[in-house]
Design goal:
This protein has helices at residues 11-18, 20-39, 58-67, 69-72, 88-102, 110-125, 132-137, 145-161. The protein is mainly alpha-helical. The protein binds heme C. Residues 67-68, 70-72, 95, 98-99, 102-103, 116, 119-120, 123-124, 129-131, 134 line the site of heme C.
Length: 183
């Protein structure tokens, strides 16, 4: 309420003007950093699919593919624009590296079912996975309560199946797609 201290509003533009060469240098520096950042190479490749869990149904696999595969399989979709532009692409890349090393549905082995089943149910139940930064950009990966339940039940049945290696592309067909028709 009291107006004892007049704010010196006029100072700001004159500061920018007086220091415009420094300002330009800073902006130029940022632009340069941005450009150089784009040149840093990243390995955005998909290794071959070796073995998938013995899915109980195509629906379970489909849900997992939509919600989990971009980070937990060798079938990552690298095409979104933010996966191509630094610094966002570093974050995407790190998610995929870390995600694959924790859990990779394309390099499945029987032992992983026992190891992973509890954790998978937990992260789905608690909404930790898929992570929020991902569902913000992929609204279709945001699981409803019903889909969460479906996916968790599907995993339970899948893990009970034992025997991994539904898809061993090099054995029957090496075109990289995953045939759903086996049982
Ligand atoms: C945007 C990438 C991304 C997606 C999509 C994603 N995850 Fe993850 N996930 C990660 C990363 C990164 C980690 C390792 C770091 C961490 O735990 O946060 C991880 C870790 C995990 C772990 C290990 C346990 C833990 O908390 O460390 C499990 C289990 C898991 N994810 C399951 C899933 C399932 C199931 C889905 C699909 C419903 C899914 N994730 C979707 C990135 C992802």
């Amino acid at each position: 309420m009291s107006q004892q201290m007049p704010v010196e509003v006029e100072k700001r533009p004159s500061f920018l003007l007086r220091h415009r060469s420094k300002v330009l240098m800073v902006v130029g520096g940022l632009v340069l950093i941005f450009v150089v950042m784009q040149l840093i190479p990243l390995d955005q490749t998909n290794p071959p699919v070796k073995a998938e869990p013995n899915w109980d149904s195509p629906q379970t696999r489909e849900l997992a593919a939509v919600a989990c595969f971009d980070c937990h399989s060798n079938e990552t979709d690298w095409s979104p624009w933010y996966a191509k532009i630094a610094p966002a692409k570093f974050l995407v890349w790190r998610d995929v590296e870390e995600g694959r090393s924790e859990l990779n549905f394309s390099e499945w082995s029987d032992g992983m079912s026992a190891e992973m089943s509890g954790e998978i149910a937990e992260v789905i139940q608690e909404g930790e996975m898929p992570p929020m930064q991902y569902t913000l950009m992929h609204s279709n990966a945001k699981l409803s309560d019903e889909e969460k339940q479906q996916l968790m039940d599907g995993f339970v049945r899948t893990f009970a199946n034992g025997q991994s290696t539904t898809a061993v592309p090099n054995q029957e067909d090496d075109d990289g797609d995953n045939d759903e028709d086996e049982d």
